[in-house]
Structures
1.
Amino acid sequence: LGAPNAKDLTYNGEAISFLPAVKFPKTISNNVIPFAGTLVDDGMLETDEEKKLRNESRKILHIPNLRVSGTCVRVPVFTGHSLSLTLEFDRAITPAEATKILSSAAGVSLMDVPTPLDAAGKNESFVGRIRQDHSIDGNKGLVLFVSNDNLRKGAALNALQIAEVIVSNRK
């Protein structure tokens, strides 16, 4: 196992010998793997993480037929989840409108280029790269990127924040 030489890897991905992949389907060092979780044997060629992405999105947003398609990717970072989102709306929306709405959304911090490093140790979801999706007619589509600390902004913090909303709504 040789120490990676960035110059060598720039020109040839096989310039360094890595140990065989054990936990992931490919070597994760200096790499990105478009396969997270376990392949589900239902003929759809999706992983359990990709199915969970769709099902949890539908559940959280209370939209049972929400169209969600994603490829979950493993990226070698210490902490963090990130999403590249393509969103289609019922009406036209501009990046400026979305930015205005998100600027006052609880738990959201806007930034030009959000990354897992920006989100590490913080509770907010960092949102940026907001732009029009020109593949969706009528200016009804947006593309944006979201990063958060999955050790904080996950099931436990979400449950606490949902409970706080329920309690405040009962007053």
2.
Amino acid sequence: MPLTYERILYDVTDGIATVTLNFPEKRNAMRKPMVNELGHALALAEHDPAVKAIILTGAGEHFSAGGDMSAATSGPPTLESSRARMQGGTRVARQLLELQKPLIAAVDGCAFGAGFSFALASDIIIASTRARFCLAFLRIGLMPDAAALFTLPRLIGLQAAKQLIYSARELTAAEALGLHLVLDVVEPDELMTRAREIARTMGSIAPTAFAVTKNALLKTHSSDLTTILDAEIEGQAMAFMSSAHLEAVQRMQAKEPPLFQWPTGGAGSR
């Protein structure tokens, strides 16, 4: 697949890969070509040593309206064709959740359906004041997908997740902030600046420590104490041996400031 995509934009600047869903005339609604390109770009960013963090965003004034329900289909759906239709989005949702590099979703306008699901699969969401979030699936006789049934209850609790899913109601950016779904809410013209600031900061986290921590957090709600303790032992053993940890110890002994410091400003600094 070429590096010039049809339905996404891909840019690497100063160690940050920005992946932009690029179908603004349809509010970045997702069709199979876009989903496939997104998966390719995520793999490219993950395996590029120059990339320290990734931003996922949308072109124009929206993140994504979700799956494009107007996309042409060949005849009535069957169980087999419906399963096949799900494969791409499910694969990308897993990619997003399992990325070994920090992933920031910069959400402007609507993040509906699978668009909301993909944002939930990021490590951190930065939203504009005009962002709106909605798992609208039940409005059209569908169930949430793209890992939303995995992520949302873990983020806000089962009962609150049920209420959002069953009501299919929209959340404002302020409401999403109140539920701790987003880290910061900023004006639209400040969105990418703040997202890049957070990406730069998270990109300075020791990569081994970040990867083993993220892998362990994915297991937290489905593992017993022994499994989590074993994960901590194995992950910490790897982190102890990393060059980033050794450098951090040297800097501490030399009374030099740490390389990783969270930026001031925004809800994330409070």
